[in-house]
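Notes to self after the call with IL:
- keep both proteins in one doc
- input above output, always
- annotate only the second one for now

Protein 1:
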Amino acid sequence: MADKAAIIVLSDTQDYEGMGRVVNAMITVKEYKEAGEEVKLILDGAGTRWVKQFMKPEVPYRELYDQVKDKISVCEYCAGAFNVAKEVEEQSLPVEAAYDGHPSIRTLLNDGWKVVTF
């Protein structure tokens, strides 16, 4: 059985450390995707702000974002809390809202997903 990985980005867009985290998360997603294994990238908390950031064509790593965009979903509650719900909708990204408007980490783990946070 192939691995299933849920990569969760919680880091904000406001510094280089955050950029390093989201880039490493996207590289991990790309690796799983290329191996043909199940993977999803969930933007949660302040990490939802990356949706708006990667809408800018000049942002570094935009090409990498485009390569993994089909594996991205966004916390519904946090998209609203961090004022990016409009951008999530514009990009047609699916939202996660299984537990009180948030992704259900418990369900992911119970369903056999490995969870990695950045």
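Protein 2 (the one to annotate):
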Amino acid sequence: MVQLPAADIRRAVRLGLEEDLGQGDVTTAALFPKPVPARADIIAQQPIVVAGLAAAVQTFLAVDPTLTLTVVRRDGEPARTGEPILSIAGDGRAILQAERVALNFLQHLSGIATLTHRFCRAIKGRSIDIMDTRKTLPGWRAIQKWAVALGGGVNHRMSLGDGMLIKDNHLALLNRGPQTVRAACRLAKAYKPGTMPVIVEAESLSEVRQALAGKADIILLDNMTPAMVRRAVSLIKGRAVIEVSGGITMKNVRAMAATGIDRISIGALTHSAPAVAFSLVMIRTGRQR
């Protein structure tokens, strides 16, 4: 079951409302000096995997705890074009004030979940994890990675402290000559032996050989073609978990998955997922009091 990052959602909702509503809503105040009974439906405008509904609900309730909310589609569930996912009833003024922030959560996070689902579906039948990266919006990492998990993906490192990943700039800084990758692996494995796997980025078959000599647990093949990945897989022969990353798209993910790798990490899941479309349709249900 996907864990809900409740504290991170509350913080994001608070900041979103401070940003949008911190100085009030002058338009609504000018038009509606008194409560206006209303009902609104949030409707999917395309096929999606829902994500961010918990944040949307918290947004509406933070503006007005007396609103009545009816959840039609839950986080992680699919929704078709034209289907409602959430209904809200109560003071129309509060609905207007929460609308933009709630929809921002839904559009962005459902976009991430939907794109992740597409990648997972593209490699269906293969035992390969589709993983995210740390390429996330500052302050939104937990909820963006939550959306990846809702779409069927697997979370990579949450921070620099919960996994060792030796990247190209680590290697450039270490600069131990032609055996830099091997030296980096050995230093990393000696730091906290047995506490976490050591992942090392390799951009060539020479670096793959060094990673194997350094006993890396996971070798990340970076920006390699499927043909080159196959050669690396043959070289590794099961001695390390094999991850690929860099330049993965819907056009090449199936070919990459067929090379014999174990996992694929895709930064685009969080940094480039297109927002999906929702509309909020509201009607007045009674006279202004």
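Annotation: Residues 6-120+274-284 form a domain with the Aldehyde Oxidoreductase; domain 3 fold (CATH 3.90.1170.20). Residues 46 and 207 are 44 Å apart (CA to CA).
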